[in-house]
Specification:
- By secondary structure, the protein is α+β, with helices and mostly antiparallel strands.
- The chain contains 3 helices and 14 strands.
- The strands form 3 sheets. A 5-stranded antiparallel β-sheet has the order 3-2-1-14-13, with helices on one face.
- A hairpin with a 2-residue loop joins strand 4 and strand 5.
- 16% of the residues are buried.
């Protein structure tokens, strides 16, 4: 009996030792697998961070959409001179008029057609109503030559000087036309009393 009990105890001890020996190994495997998963997770996170950084860099490098460039138009007219000087962004062109500007009652009278065409406006004449029409993308101006009215986009305004016909050209003070286009004295319209020169500056959009 004693021998049998001793054998049983020995067997029990062997099994218990075997069981205890397996658990640490399994624990190690589980811990190792956890470590592997953690490294893989870190790699994935690093990849995602790189992707996000790349996306942000790409967004930052995208060029901004620029609006249409503006052209700066400058015109210079001199009293008793038939040459109209036109500058677009500094590039000079001389337009020869068939009648020179002149001064009447302290106002510089210029041929409407030459001024309007230099401002890149369309010019037309209605012989029945004796009206000059000036048009571009933003303005429609009507000038009935037998009145002192200037009609801008349907709004009627009064001019302090009536137009007059001279050598077949409709003449009007340069400042009146410029103001009808929204230009202002001292900002877009300049007068040099010594040189007797009128200068008009206007911004134009590229088409």
């Amino acid at each position: 009996m004693k021998k049998g009990l001793a054998l049983l105890l020995v067997v029990a001890m062997i099994f218990s030792l075997a069981a205890c020996g397996k658990k640490p190994a399994e624990d190690k495997k589980e811990k190792t697998s956890e470590k592997v998963e953690t490294k893989e997770d870190k790699k994935e996170e690093a990849k995602e961070e790189v992707k996000e950084d790349v996306k942000e860099d790409v967004k930052e490098e995208k060029p901004e959409v620029k609006e249409a460039d503006e052209r700066i138009l400058k015109m210079i007219l001199t009293v008793v001179c038939k040459d109209l000087e036109k500058y677009i962004n500094g590039d000079k062109t001389i337009i020869e008029m068939d009648i020179a500007p002149y001064i009447k009652d302290g106002r510089t009278m210029i041929p409407i057609r030459y001024l309007a065409e230099a401002l890149e406006m369309k010019v037309s004449w209605d012989a029945k109503t004796r009206t000059v029409f000036l048009e571009d993308d933003n303005f429609k101006i009507e000038i009935p030559v037998d009145t002192n009215k200037i009609i801008v986009n349907g709004e009627e305004r009064e001019s302090d000087v009536m137009p007059e016909i001279k050598s077949g050209r409709t003449m009007l003070p340069i400042a009146n036309i410029a103001r009808a286009l929204g230009l202002r004295d001292g900002e877009n319209i300049f007068w040099d009393p010594v040189e007797k020169k009128a200068t008009i500056i206007r911004k134009l959009q590229n088409k």
